[in-house]
Amino acid sequence: MKQYSEHNFEQCTKCTVCTVYCPVATVNPLYPGPKQAGPDGERLRRKGPQFFDESLNMCLNCKRCEVACPSDVRIGDIIQSARIKYSAKKPGLREFTLANTDLVGSMATLVAPVVNTTLGLKPVRQVVESVMNIDHRRIFPKYSFGTFEGWMRKQKKAQAQYQKQLAYFHGCYVNYNNPPLGQAFVKVANALGYGVQLLDKEKCCGVALISNGFIKKATKQAKSNIESIRKATKQSLKVVATSSTCTFTLKDEYHHLLGLENGDIRENIDLAVRFIYNLLSDGNHTLKFNPEAPRIRVAYHTPCHLERLGWSQYSIELLKLIPSVELIQLESQCCGIAGTYGFKKENYKTSQEIGQPLFNAIEESECDIVATDCETCKWQIEMSTSKKVLHPIEILASALM
Amino acid sequence: MRYDTVIIGGGLSGLICGIELARKGKQAAIVATGHSTLHFSSGSFGLLSKDSNGNAIDNPLEAIKALDANHPYSKIGADRVAELADVATQCLNIAEIATNGSTDKNHFIATPPGTLRCCWRSIDGMLTSECSNSFDFKSVALFNFDGFIDFYTEFIASQLRGFSLEVSCHSVEIPELVVRRDNPTEMRSTTIARALDKIENIEILAKAINDKAGEAQVVILPAVLGLYRKDTQALLEKAVNRKVLTINTVPPSVEGIKMERALKSVFKAMGGTIFTGHTVVNHTVEDNTITSITTSKDVTVSAEHFVLATGSFIGGGLDSTHQEGIFEPIFGADIEQKEEQYTLIDIFEAQPFMCSGVATDNSFKVLKNGTAIDNLYACGAILSGYNPVKEGSGAGVAMLTAIAVAENILNR
């Protein structure tokens, strides 16, 4: 759409459509809503920082306002940029622990059984709440004993056998918590004739650093990732990620929120489901499905950042291709967790209230499994419903011969 | 990705076209930038409401016969309007959008400032009348919610008194909404509607009505009775033991939002696909045929047929600059602009630019450089040859041309 002003907020026609679709404003009356917090407030903030309101920290950066906007206003970006620029709230120990997924993950995976057991204990969670202000009801994702990167090192030779190659951006979650998802991706990529390698150096995409106010560190990691992806791009290696939020951060947030130049590599970053769907549609690639695979009823949930990327249809179409899957499409709505947002004690109630309609829809769907491309949606749904959650790639991999 | 038909635009016209195609078994996809102008819906639908002198039209079917050859209804064929109007009503029924009205006789609906406006159909439960200056009841109690600034109670009351009604004005406090008033600009129709989705708030409202409405025969409320619940009005009527009717508010329009959701959900249930947040930025052409479109989200979709239902200026389907004048941004379609001058100084005059739009042949195929593109159709507000505001025909043209386009595609 045409930009009418150098200031994106001036595209706003005050139509109020965004306020209808903000999940926070829906449940939390103290949040001023995306129009007020975004374009309206921005006009004032240009006068001076005294017009910044700390209630903007209630925004969970789901970007559903941007998807709803008929005038192409980057409302979520305006709010997040204002937080970065003006918020006086300094991140503390809690923010440090939640945001540094790389550091915490690499320590936790060394002693995973101990960490998992300890964090599972109620008294420990009570202590965590009183010391860290992380809600005691929140269930932490389990850490894996050994990392995905460690597993990949052992696969190097086998993967190098494939003529066609791609670089996999696995993300912290696959590395420290869920290597089986990465392994499933490798299996599918191999079945399509692609060998999988890792980037020269992969750092956490930094989404949690950005949302918790560690901008300097996020920028440093982003620069390192951009460099690694640039190197892969020069070698004509497609960079593919399974996580929708990592993909979104690498493609859009680096430029929009951190002001980094990534235009030359943006198109070379792809989401796993899109990459695979496009391969299968080109007429030269097929997958062999196991005819014995058990029939499962799968309910697909669209993560907010995938909605913003505009690519949820690739997940849906890919799941439809699996003969053993009966697919139910859940109405696209926020699950409420928003990465580290829902872990914070003060956000727990908002987080669960936002997710309630989704949880109800999942229970009513009578599905066997929920599918989604986002790891934090998975934690939230597994904690708040009776269902197990898998990534579409895991479901695809398990249906193959 | 490939579909039988791709519809660009997710407003009333695009959705109706999609539903018509999907229910005949076609694979249809809708590509939309954001949410639609249904968020500004009045809760009523005009087929043809006003003549060239601004007077209310009694029988739109008769009046349509006298329209210019270039009017969208004339392209459909005046003799087919009644039939397509029935199909449009069927579409609303399938989506469980309850409306009243008949195609050969217009009626009147109360507007947000309390005047009466001529229309073809209106959402069930809104304040309407068979004639332009009276109601078949004598007294009403008009209620607003404390702190809600998008409903002008006294203004409406003075208008209604002009129709010989006895009117009393009241206000209700919903405790849950008190804190919302800290941000008065965000105390919107949808905020109240969400509160009224809860049974405890409906009970509070019913009690306030019973306490304050006295002997009034009818209770009138802003049209904010819930976003998801369908039984609010019925529950209230039972609790207050009289008729409860609504008048639309300033946008966002709760009735329009419910309509959009209902139409989308029917379209999806029929197998339709919706891409929201996608603006079409590119397309490919072969032999005067559109083969694919690419969106701002780097998604390429191909299809046999394409429908341009992107709306007029407010929907983004038409645009203008000082240098280029009016243009259609996606395909660069021919624009029809009758008069040299776009605007008139008197803002209440019928503005000439409102009649401008995309040029089509009689089957609504889009013209480019004077030639019809073989598989690209246009429907709804983007069309030229009519003035939706002056005529009160926006919704009628949106729905009927959508159905005509769907038929033309199906008949190929």
Structural commentary:
The complex is a heterodimer of chains A (401) and B (412). Helix content of chain A is 53%, strand content 8%. Chain A is an alpha/beta fold and 401 residues long. In chain A, strands 2-1-3-4 form a 4-stranded parallel sheet, with helices on both faces. A 4-stranded parallel sheet of chain A has the order 6-5-7-8, with helices on both faces. In chain A, strand 7, helix 21 (375-384) and strand 8 (388-390) form a beta-alpha-beta unit. In chain A, helix 12 (179-191) crosses helix 22. The longest helix of chain A is centred in the middle third of the chain and has 20 residues, at 215-234. With 412 residues, chain B is α/β, with parallel strands linked by helices. Chain B folds into 2 domains: 2-104 and 256-410, FAD/NAD(P)-binding domain, CATH 3.50.50; 127-247, Rossmann fold (3-Layer(aba) Sandwich). In chain B, the strands form 6 sheets. In chain B, strands 1, 2, 13, 14, 15, 16, 21 and 22 form an 8-stranded mixed sheet that branches. At the A-B interface, helix 1, helix 3, helix 4 and helix 18 of A face helix 6 and strand 13 of B.
